Amino acid sequence: MRLQFVMSEIRVGLRRNLTMTFAVVVSVALSLTLLGGAILLRDQVSAMKGYWYDKVNVSIFLCNKSDAESDPNCAKGAVTKDQKEQIKADLGDMAIVDEVVHESQDEAYDHYKEQFGDSPLAATLTPDQMQESYRIKLTDPEKYEVIATAFDGREGVQSVQDQKGILDNLFTMLGMLSTAALALMAVMLVVAMLLIVNTVRVSAFSRRRETGIMRLVGASGFYIQAPFIMEAAVAGLIGGALACVFLVLGRFFTIDNGMALSERLTLINFVGWDALLTKLPLILAISFLMPALAAFFALRKYLKV
């Protein structure tokens, strides 16, 4: 009987404040969609870091004859055979070096033609203008500075470049997007909380006579609060369910089908469905508990008769 009464009160309350309930549902849905998207974006950044940092190379570019005329680092002339052998030997003695691949001028020229063959500059280049290089795979990509310190400025070395720096810029931008989404989500959650508190207070005020009578006849505080708390929790849960639907549809139509980013951007290892599905219970739990707690604290003064 008590459960039936609570359920009937929930239905009455939701219908009575339909407009505000709709606002609560929409604000909760949008804020939790942003929360889920921000969490998934952080997972995506972590997955991309693990994937790409493992493939990062440090490149030691060697001086050629053209560099000797124009680059201060190559003022002593093009790299010699002895210098190349010494660089390779020193790399082999370093514990952080996992693999060393030598790229000759002809190979560098062929690679350039493959990538930029349509460029007007490609027609003017010759193999002797390209730079030899050592492409180094490290056991720990974070220790690039060890290579840079050991070889930057050495005779025969034009420059030491780390591909990780390029990736860091990308990951920094993605991290900023994730932070911006979390900040916007926080604003939306505050709006949702305020809407929940106002909705509960309006509902409690409109039924103050009934709650006063219930209090006078000995009804417990929890029994009086329960319908209002459940109204807010149900509205929030509907919003959380909508957020889950938005996240699922968003991934389906942007990554798998529709835009099909997984097929167009094959170099990006997108997070799988398992990463998304494991976040949905968290979204639903927050959507239920947050409005319930907000309603509980908002109702305390309305229990006084």
Describe this structure in words.
The chain is of the alpha+beta class and 305 residues long. The chain contains 12 helices and 4 strands, in the order H-H-E-H-H-E-H-E-H-E-H-H-H-H-H-H. The protein has helices at residues 2-16, 18-53, 65-70, 81-92, 105-116, 144-151, 164-206, 208-216, 221-256, 261-264, 273-277, 280-299, and strands at 57-62, 97-103, 133-138, 157-162. A 4-stranded antiparallel β-sheet has the order 2-3-1-4. Helix 1 crosses helix 9 and helix 2 packs across helix 12. The mean pLDDT is 77. The chain crosses the membrane at residues 21-41, 177-200, 221-249, 280-299.
Brief summary of the model shown:
Forms a membrane-associated complex with FtsE. The chain has 305 residues and is of the alpha+beta class.
Please identify the structural class as seen in this structure. Answer: alpha+beta
Which regions are unreliable across 5 or more consecutive residues at pLDDT < 50?
none
**Separate helix tally:** 12
Largest sheet: 4 strands, antiparallel
Q: Whole-number radius of gyration?
A: 32 Å
Fraction of residues in H or I helices: 55-70%
Q: Tell me, what's the shape?
A: elongated
What is the first-to-last residue Cα distance? 25 Å
The strand order across the widest sheet is 2-3-1-4
**Topology as H/E string?**
HHEHHEHEHEHHHHHH
Mean pLDDT: 77
Strand content: 5-15%
Count the beta strands.
4
